[in-house]
Each structure stands twice: as structure tokens, then as C-alpha cells.
Amino acid sequence: MIDPYKMIVVNVIASAGLLVFLLFYRFIFPEKKINLFLLLILISILPLISILRQGTYESGDLTLHSVFLMSFYETLKEGVFPPQWAGGLCGGYGCPVFMFEYPLPYYIGAIFHFLGFSFINSIKLLLIFSFITSGTGMYFWAKAEYGKVPGFVASIFYLFAPYHLVDMHFRVSVGEVISFTFIPFLFLFSKRTIETKKIKFVILVALSLTLLILSHISIALAVLPILAGYCFIVIRRKNQDSIKRLVFFLSSILLGIALSSYYLIPGILEVKYTWYHQLTLGDFKPLTEYLFSPALFGLLFQGHNGELRLIVGYAHILAFLVSIYLILKRTGSRFPLLILWTAYSLFLFLMMQQFSKPLWEIFPFLRTFSMPWRLLIPIAFLTAAIAGNVVKIINNKTFIVVLCVFAVGTTILNWGNRKMVPEYKDSYFTHWSLYSEYFEPDKEVFRKSYFDRIALAPELVLNRPKYPIEIINGEAEYTQIARTSTLHSYIIDAKTDIYAKENTFYFPGWKLRVNDIEEPVIYNDPQRLGIMYFKLKPGLHKVDFEFSDTKARKISRWISLITLILMMVILILSTIRRNKALRATTRLLRSILPKS
């Protein structure tokens, strides 16, 4: 296992090796241009070398997400789709983690695990995949908007945004990391939709937005206003069919929202039944902490005790200042995109300051951000776009090289977690993040339970139930005949009237059937609030507890399914129509052109 300080040497050697290769290539082929896309891929590999080390991260949530992936994969193996209930988490009582946690990273991680990789390595591969594709996505969009060289510069800034590296190596918030991937693709396909008015790009916008929502809903919320401003400018560029282009764009956004309804609607309507509903926005940082890191002359973005240094980026600040200069120096109407990126960057930066808290509190849905510095993700995109725009205006080779080297070089100490440690085998049973019990916000007894127990979550997960069922009153014998995450079945021989506890947290959707007849579930017993209790008369009973869909979940799934079918039908009809038009054009040309 490579020591973290030795890892810095490895990164320096790898970077020097790439530089020597480029110089050698230029010496051997002086007339041949370097393929910027290939160079981008090679550069993007540099911060990924440390991930290949054995073990898990000493800090951050790599192990946590491997635990979530274990539970997610188990549910998929049971044939449950989409996974919503994590039966083995929350102290073994189960909780609806996957209804509210971003699901897309776990679908991708499940594919890697299915291919034979361990859960830890599957999350590592997810990080690698996300990082490389985020850079390529940014390159394709910025290249389409500004050209090859500005596209390359923008992608370098995007990849080496300090928060991008902090997210990948120190925090390991897999939803945030993968959201970096879909932002540029969303902008690229929106641009193509408006410019071409082609159905295939409408579908691609819808898919990109859906994937972004499934990656991280908060980031999607922050990005959509930026996308709207960008698309307004793209539409203004075209002198014809503005209304039609706007309709195409808005249709793609509506399709994306509708396609993700199966996740959005239950999340919005049913989060109130969890402890997550009580989360508040906090952790506003002083302005200076976003500008400069106090660790190791400003070059380290994590403190000795795991503190995060959440800076915007020195090269990114430089690009922002240059953009201000260019806007003030030249006629603003000549650079509408530069003005847009700069204005949005400034607004989001101000939204991370303490004085903006009242504005956050006006809109309750903004609580999903939890921490305002998550806005560093759209800021990373905006400052990367600014860098590409600036380079297009200042087309100076030396300036471009210095800017890229500065952006990459000032982050080199952060190309890996501080230390790798052996995997903790019992992590599945000890992690308490996203611990929740059943909650009703309007009832004081549940509110009191929350305030009494939330601080005890690290201890609560350790007190796992010894038995699936406990007989509280009466006499009975039971046999468990089936148990999956969403179905618990028993044969219970009750000698007397019994009052029993099924050691699973209640949540809307759990139903009790006794001898195939639905019976009420008791979940407000003051002895153990939120746990499911039930009563039986003497006799032999088949008892089933099953987690099923509520009306909101059923409706939302139908919306997603109908939207998916509609998109497929539209795409097929569009393809048929295009092929017919192509054949008609071919026949017309053959009839006009003279035969040879």
C-alpha cells in the first residue's frame, strides 16, 4: 500500500512522463498536430492513479457507498425493481434509503459488481468512469460552442476544479461525482435540439436530464436555471422558428422530468415520513474559505484532521477575473455567453454566503442541498465555460498553455485520498449515515422521539434485533418460511391471544396479511415507536408482511413508463418519416439527373 506522501511522487513522475512523451512526440512529428481529445484522456488518467491502490479510503464515504451498494444489489437479486427498501440497513430494521438517496450510482455500481468486481472496487470504477466521462462530455460541448482548443481548456478546468477532486478523493459523494458527467451532455444535447430541431436530440436531452436527476436532484435544480439562460441565448442566435425551437427544448425538459417521475414524486410526497424531512440547510463557510486553502501554502484541499478546503480554484478565479475585464473592456453585446456565465457564477457564489440564508428558506425544496457549498458543482461548470470563452477571445498559445498548466499544477497534491486502509468487514452492520425511523411531522410523540434519538444513531445501528419476531404478550411458536427485503413470511402457532413485534420499521407501503386477509399494522406503540406490531387470535396462522407500492408510487411509475413508451414511439416514427423523406429525395434526384 503506497504511503500518501509517496503517492505525490508517483503523481509527479507520471505527469513528468506525460510531458516528456509530448515533447518527444513534437520532436519526432513537428508537423503533426497533437490530438487534443486523446491528450485530454491521458491527462484525466493522472488523478485516477491513486484510486487503484488496494483498500478503502481512510476518510470520506467510499466504504459507506459500498455498503449501500451491497444492500441495493441484494434487492436487485431478489427481483425487486426499482429497489426502494434497504432491509439490512438502519440497524437491521430496514428503511427506505433508496427512495431518497440518489439511485443511479448504485445501478452503475451493480453492473460492475455483476461483472465480478468487489463492492469497494465497483465504487472505485464508478469514480473512474465518472471522472473520465465528465471531461469528455465537457470537451464535446465546449468544442461545439467555442472550438477545439477552447473545448480542451474548458474540459481541463472542469476536470481539475478543486471541488471535483475533493468530491472524488476526499468526500466520495458518488451522486455528486457522477452528476459532473451529465451536466455538459445536457447542455450539448440542448444546443443540438435548438439548432437542428431533431427528435433524437429531444430524446437525448430528456435522457440526460433524467440521469442528472437520478444522480443528484439538488444539482439538477441548480443547473436548470443556467440551462434556461443558455438556451435562451442559443435560440436568439437563430433568426427563424424561435417559437418552434423553444417548444422543442421545453418538450425535452418536460419529458426528462416525466421520465424521472418514479423517483421524484414519491421522494417529494413521502420524505415527510422519514427523519430526512427534518434536515436543515447549514454549514455556510466564510468567503475567504472559498478563495484560499490554509493548508500547505494553499495547495492542499484537505486538512490533517480530514477538514475539507472547499475552494473555487485559483485558475478558475483567474479566469473569472479575466472575464470581468473582458466584459468591461469590450461591448457586452458581443459576449452574451461570457456575461451569462459570469453573472451566474457570481450569483451562486453569493448564494453560498451566510447572508443568503433567508433566500434559501423561502423555498422549502432547497433544503435538499443540506450544504450550500454543493453549488461548487455548477460553479465548476460555469468557470470552466468561462475559461473556454476567455481562451476563444484571447487566442494566445502561451496564455493557453500557462493557464492549463496552472489549473492542473495547483491541484497535484490532491490527486488521491490521504491514506488507504484495509476494508472493514463489519461495515455493513455499523454504518449509520441516512439512518431513519418512521416519522410523522404533525405528531408530537414522533417529533420527541426524533429529537431524543437522532444523536444516538451511531449506537442504534449496533443494536440489531436478535429475532425477526418477538412475542410481547401471550404464547406462540413461529417458523420463518420466507424473508427478502420486501417480504417477511411466517407460520405462527398462537396458543393464546398474542401481541407481537415484527422487527422492521414501518413505512407507508408495508401491509400485514393474516391468512391472506389484510389486517391493520400497529406502528405507534410507545414501547418502540415506529416498529410494526400485530395481534393474533389463538390458532395456526400464515402471516405476511409485504412492502408494496402506495398510490403515489404506482401513479409515478405509470407516468415514467408511459413517458418511456411515448419517447420510443416518437423516435421510431421520426426515424420512419426521415427514411421515407430520404427515399423520396433519392427517387427525385434519380428522375432529374441524366442516366449515364
> Helix amount, in percent?
55-70%
Tally of structural domains: 2
> What portion of residues belong to β-strands?
5-15%
User: What low-confidence regions span 5 or more consecutive residues with pLDDT below 50?
Assistant: none
**Number of alpha- plus pi-helical segments:** 22
Structural class by sheet pairing and helices: alpha+beta
Distance between the termini: 73 Å
Query: Which strand order does the major sheet show?
Result: 4-5-10-7-8
Shape: globular
What is the radius of gyration? 27 Å
Number of strands: 10
**Kindly state the mean pLDDT as a whole number?**
91
Major pleated sheet: 5 strands, antiparallel
What's the SSE blueprint?
Layout: H1 4-28, H2 36-45, E1 56-57, H3 62-77, H4 97-100, H5 104-114, H6 119-146, H7 148-159, H8 162-171, H9 174-196, H10 199-215, H11 217-237, H12 242-259, H13 261-270, H14 314-329, H15 336-351, H16 357-362, H17 376-393, H18 397-409, E2 420-421, H19 427-430, H20 444-453, H21 457-460, E3 469-473, E4 476-483, E5 487-494, E6 498-505, E7 510-514, E8 517-519, E9 531-536, E10 539-547, H22 551-592
Antiparallel strand pairs: 1-2, 3-6, 4-5, 5-10, 6-9, 7-8, 7-10
Helix pairs in contact: 2-6, 2-7, 3-5, 3-6, 5-6, 6-7, 6-9, 7-17, 9-10, 9-11, 9-12, 10-11, 10-12, 11-12, 11-15, 13-22, 14-15, 14-17, 15-17
